[in-house]
Every structure is written in C-alpha cells, then in structure tokens.
TrEMBL record:
Belongs to the IF-3 family. Pfam families: IF3_C, IF3_N. This is Translation initiation factor IF-3. GO terms for biological process: ribosome disassembly. Residues 7-76 form the Translation initiation factor 3 N-terminal domain. It is found in: Cytoplasm. The keyword Cytoplasm applies. GO terms for cellular component: cytosol; membrane. The gene is infC. PANTHER family: TRANSLATION INITIATION FACTOR IF-3, TRANSLATION INITIATION FACTOR IF-3, MITOCHONDRIAL. Keywords: Cytoplasm, Initiation factor, Protein biosynthesis. It comes from Nakamurella sp. A5-74. Its main location: cytoplasm. Gene3D superfamilies: Translation initiation factor 3 (IF-3), C-terminal domain, Translation initiation factor 3 (IF-3), N-terminal domain. The keyword Nucleotidyltransferase does not apply.
Length: 187
C-alpha cells in the first residue's frame, strides 16, 4: 500500500466529510458533489484522514502540498544533529608519552563535540589482569572530566575493555554564553 494520500478519482467511498480550501468545515457530502466542488475551484480533493468514518477530505492544490511537505522534510534533515563516534585504542602497558598523545586525541574529539569509544586491547597474559585496563580508563576519564562525561562505564568484552565518553552539552554553547553577558554589563 502506498503512503501517499488518495486524491480525486482514487477516493472510492460514497460520502466524505469535506473541509474547504481555507480550512472551513463544509460538512458530509456525496463524493460526486465533493469532486464537482474541487473541479469548480480548480483544486484537488485529497483524503487527509482515511480511517475516519466518513473519511475526511480537503480541497487543496496537491502539487503545492507535496512540494511544501518535501521542503519541510528537507529542512528537518538539515537541522538534525549527526552523532559521530570516534574510537581510540590503547594497550594496558602504554608508555607515558604515548598515553599523553592518545589523551590529546580524545580531548580534540570531545572539543569537536564527538563521542569517543576508548578500547583497551588485552593480549596473552594481559587478559588475566583486567584491573590494569580498568585503572587506565579511570585515569583517562579523570583527565578529561572537564570536557566530557563517562556515558558507558568500562566493561570487559572478550579481549577488549570498552568505555564511551560523551562531550558535555555545554561545550558547544560556551562561546555564545560568554558573549551574552558582556553587552548586558555595558548597559
């Protein structure tokens, strides 16, 4: 079944509740009368509520209606925020300098407003010491606490331990918040 509403001759019911072009209630009329009114006004008869008894139809320019609804859908897609998850992989026996480098990447991702999935990979005997990975993830979370929060606590997943960090909601809005009080103080 198509998702588009039935229009004009495709409406196969004996009578409909008719709504005029300006939104005024015309009432329950025979389908032939509704089609005649639509043709006289040079508009289409569009079924807007097919489940109602009798179905509700409206007089409108269907082409214009489809165009406007497509524009609204396009605008909604443009305004939606796309969540990006970046991944950072670490090892339990990471060197201090390597840790700082990886932490810098995590900081950069959080400042950009992206979520970060931090993965600790265990190999061989390292799997018998998951507390090392847990401590490393806790240390990373404490180091970036001013930029992000732990969305998903560290958990073991086979040979890996995973934690997800999300940026604070206020990170993106800080520049606008700091510029607003300045004009108020000048007044």
């Amino acid at each position: 079944m198509s998702v588009e509403p039935r229009i004009n001759d495709r409406i196969r019911v004996p009578e409909v509740r008719l709504v005029g072009a300006e939104g005024e209630q015309i009432g329950i009329v025979a389908i032939a009368e509704a089609l005649r009114l639509a043709q006289a006004a040079d508009l289409d008869l569009v079924e807007v509520a097919p489940a109602a008894r009798p179905p509700v139809c409206k007089l409108m320019d269907y082409g214009k209606f489809k165009y406007e609804s497509a524009q609204k859908a396009r605008e909604a897609r443009r305004n939606q925020v796309l969540t990006v998850i970046k991944e950072m992989k670490l090892r339990p026996k990471i060197d201090a300098h390597d840790y700082e480098t990886k932490k810098g990447h995590v900081v950069r991702f959080l400042k950009a407003g992206d979520k970060v999935k931090v993965t600790i990979m265990f190999r061989g005997r390292e799997q018998s010491r998951p507390e090392l990975g847990y401590r490393l993830l806790q240390r990373l979370a404490e180091d970036v606490v001013d930029l992000g929060i732990v969305e998903s606590a560290p958990k073991q997943d086979g040979r890996n331990m995973i934690m997800v960090l999300a940026p604070h909601r206020t990170v993106k809005s800080r520049p606008t918040a700091s510029t607003e009080p300045a004009p108020a103080a000048a007044e």
